[in-house]
Amino acid sequence: MADTGGGAQLITAEAPTADATRGTVVWWQRHNGRWRQAGSAPARFGSGGLTEGTTRVQGTSTTPTGLYDLPFAFGTEAAPPGTAVPYRRVGPDSWWCEDNASASYNRWVDPRPADCAAAESERLADHPVQYGRALVTGFNYDRPVHGRGAGIFLHVNGKGATAGCVSVPAGAMARILSWLRPSAHPHLGVGTAYGPTALTRY
């Protein structure tokens, strides 16, 4: 990759082509200047495939490509043993605001503020399987651009392709959370095997 975020831990999510909905997630540990594979799992992507993250449009069910930090984890279940990243338990009033008109756009809110429409947002407890355990990605997070997209996570598989997230089996999600260390400045790289959204570009 062109950039790995400068840390010692990296997760890569690679699809064979931009219109694919399946691929592979691999997690890597850097040791003595070399990256070593720590684990891997089959992955699912958005039902609309993958697209360049800097120009993505909300509502397209595409997974944004790019290199992202991992602000925190959350879940309807308890954090796996050994989890060191910040982890928030989902409660009945935990929402992810995806309302473009809200000041809380692309943020966890608990409870949901008045300016964040329920119809434009996700009540996290409504997805107990997918959000059993999840990692927030830094896509459009630090300085959110309204209309680009909100709520892009690495989470547990549901029944099929995602709405734009990356998903893996529940066991893999637990292993990733137990493995991550904030001191290693972990990042997630998302991309394709070739072409303008190739993982190596990020």
Structural account:
The protein is mostly beta strands and 202 residues long. It contains 1 helix and 14 strands, in the order βββββββββββββαβ. It has a 6-stranded mixed sheet with strand order 3-2-1-14-5-4, with helices on one face. A 5-stranded mixed sheet has the order 7-6-11-12-13. A hairpin with a 2-residue loop joins strand 2 (22-31) and strand 3.
Helix coverage percent of residues?
under 10%
- Largest beta-sheet characterization: 6 strands, mixed
Order of helices and strands: EEEEEEEEEEEEEHE
Distance between the termini: 6 Å
Ranges with pLDDT <50 over ≥5 residues? none
Radius of gyration: 16 Å
**Spatial order of strands in the largest sheet:** 3-2-1-14-5-4
| C-alpha geometry | globular
Q: Whole-number average pLDDT? A: 98
Enumerate how many helices there are, as a single number.
1
Using brief descriptors, characterize the structure shown.
mainly beta; six-stranded mixed beta sheet; 202 residues; 1 helix; five-stranded mixed beta sheet; globular
Blueprint (SSEs and pairs):
Layout: E1 9-15, E2 22-31, E3 34-44, E4 50-52, E5 63-69, E6 73-75, E7 87-89, E8 95-97, E9 107-109, E10 122-123, E11 134-136, E12 153-156, E13 166-168, H1 170-179, E14 187-192
Parallel strand pairs: 1-14, 4-5, 6-7, 12-13
Antiparallel strand pairs: 1-2, 2-3, 5-14, 6-11, 8-9, 8-10, 11-12
What is the gist of this entry?
The chain is mainly beta. It is 5% helix and 34% strand. The longest helix is centred in the C-terminal third of the chain and has 10 residues, at 170-179.
